[in-house]
Automatic annotation (TrEMBL):
Organism (species): Punica granatum
Main location: mitochondrion
Residue ranges occupied by any Nucleoside diphosphate kinase-like domain in the UniProt entry: 12-147
Residues of the full protein shown: 59 to 205 of 205
Taxonomic lineage from the root: Eukaryota, Viridiplantae, Streptophyta, Embryophyta, Tracheophyta
Subunit and interaction comment: Homohexamer.
Protein name: Nucleoside diphosphate kinase
Cofactor(s) the record lists: Mg(2+)
Keywords: ATP-binding, Kinase, Magnesium, Metal-binding, Nucleotide metabolism, Nucleotide-binding, Transferase
Function: Major role in the synthesis of nucleoside triphosphates other than ATP. The ATP gamma phosphate is transferred to the NDP beta phosphate via a ping-pong mechanism, using a phosphorylated active-site intermediate. Shows the highest specificity towards GDP.
Length: 147
């Protein structure tokens, strides 16, 4: 049982979630949004954009030394992306749980990638408080968030 004090200490967090072009193309927008909603998280910003390659490189800047970086940025800028900010207690960490691990073949059943993806992994989620903050700032103006 959570003590009352712990409940009050629990911080509301924001995380950045994006349905990648392959997820949009496969018609998985409502399925993915529904999983976050049913868990009890709150959608506070959403828009659909086709990122430029330059923007994709900014979004994935921490992976720029990796051999797949160029392919990744090409794929991320290849079509519409649904960019979202979700709010909730523990949403950064639990959002990653809902998504599953990077490789869809290794993602557990019950996760978004485990249930819905085979090769391309269809969704992005911030991996911690720092990246959540940076990614929200990159994708959204403060006034676009309805909190
Ligand atoms: P994520 O946080 O689970 O999305 O994974 P990362 O932040 O490590 O990588 C970002 C994205 O790059 C992943 O979602 C994949 O689309 C892609 N990626 C990661 N690792 C690999 C890899 O080893 N090979 C290829 N081709 N793509 C990768
Ligand atoms: Mg990542």
């Amino acid at each position: 049982m959570l003590q009352e004090q712990e409940v009050h200490a629990a911080e509301m967090e924001l995380t950045f979630i994006a349905i990648k072009p392959d997820g949009v193309q496969r018609g998985l927008i409502s399925e993915i949004i529904s999983r976050f909603e049913r868990k009890g998280f709150k959608l506070v910003a959403i828009k659909i954009v086709v990122p430029s390659k330059d923007f994709a490189q900014k979004h994935y800047h921490d992976l720029k030394e990796r051999p797949f970086f160029n392919r990744l940025c090409d794929s991320f800028s290849s079509g519409p992306v649904v960019a979202m900010v979700w709010e909730g207690e523990g949403v950064i960490k639990y959002g990653r749980k809902l998504i599953g691990v990077t490789d869809p073949q290794k993602s557990e059943p019950g996760t978004i990638r485990g249930d819905l993806a085979v090769r391309r992994n269809i969704i992005h989620g911030s991996d911690g408080p720092d990246s959540a903050k940076d990614e929200i700032n990159l994708w959204f103006q403060p006034e676009e968030l309805v909190t």
